Amino acid sequence: MEFAWSKDDQEFRKDLVAFLESELPDDWQEISREGPGSDAQAEFSLGFCAALAERGWLTPHWPTEYGGNAAPSWSHAVLGEELWSRGEPRGPQYMNVNWIGPTIMEHGSDEQKALHLPAISEGRVLWCQGFSEPEAGSDLVALRTSAIADGDDYIINGSKIWTSYANHADYCFLLVRSDPESSRHHGLSVILLPMDSEGIEIREIPSVVGKRYFHELFFTDVRVPRSCLLGEEGEGWKVVSYSLQYERVGAPRYARATVTLDRLAELARQKGLLDDPTVAEKLGRARAACEAARVLSYRVIDQRAHGLPPSADTNVARIAGTRVDKLVGDLALELTGSSGLEAGTFANANFKLAMTAGVAVGATEVQLNLVASRMLGLPRE
């Protein structure tokens, strides 16, 4: 197997790094530590993503008819690695590129594609994801938010929780129950909901993770046209399943973890700790975990590049990325001591980021269950 990057990918990475060095402001580290939900980072992302789009780098792997360059999937991996290792200057827009846009390409109407894909590929729109509910977090199919057909419209009632970026979003990728008599995976639908619709209330949930990171959404008789339905009514689980296989490897957490680990190794050297076999072993194990997560993610990207259908490898890669994020986050606090909890430090920033990793895109326990059933063929009890 050939693990070397192609010449085109190497050139793209080189040009991208040069672009980042010139475009990221001197106070970028300060902005990024506020969290991707902060006002500052959301505002920054609009200008930054527009600059990426001008160079054809925001959605390089998309088909040309949707604003991309039809580049191989590997270019998207290069983009993600370099941006995540720098605190993800795309802010909320990383979701647009990673999975919202591709899902609209796969399941959207011509009208929806014309409305949403240019806005995403040009970097001028922010989205949020409306999945989890107070009684349906990891058990997503227990959701109760309803969208009941009423003539040419749907009327939405219910609530969502732990919704990131809702305070700045123009649209919400909203999973609802469109058949009130249905249960579990059946009778679900996806609505591409304009966030300026009447009847939506947004409440921030204070969190140590970052400013304005989590929110509750409340829907009271929100009326939207049927044209906002993505895919077929009642086939929402099929749509969401397609989305999740992109999202699970869309955020290369191993890239950020690797940068943090390099800083920890240098810190250990400065403190004279590298001669301690326990410290050396922990750093070595963390490095091996970073590389394992990288290779497992590459396996999924390679499958995608060859046009293969999604597999449980996406779940395995997600588990590896989640665990390495937490492993390095814990190690950062161990080596920095109480100072690593101080707001604004790199150890604290990585630890906060890692806190969400085991829950987002399905809890780690859910991913393990999916590996057990889909890859190992173990029975469900």
Give the gist of this structure.
Helix content is 48%, strand content 13%. With 381 residues, it is α+β, with helices and mostly antiparallel strands. The longest helix is centred in the C-terminal third of the chain and has 29 residues, at 277-305.
Description:
The chain is of the alpha+beta class and 381 residues long. The chain has three domains: 7-125, Butyryl-Coa Dehydrogenase, subunit A, domain 1, CATH 1.10.540; 129-234, Butyryl-CoA Dehydrogenase, subunit A, domain 2 (Beta Barrel); 248-374, Butyryl-CoA Dehydrogenase, subunit A, domain 3, CATH 1.20.140.10. Helices cover 48% and strands 13% of the residues. The strands form two sheets. It has a four-stranded mixed sheet, covered by helices on one side. Strands 2-3-7-6 form a four-stranded antiparallel sheet, with no helix packed on it. α8 packs antiparallel against α9. The chain starts with 6 loop residues before the first helix and ends in a 7-residue tail after the last helix. The mean pLDDT is 84.
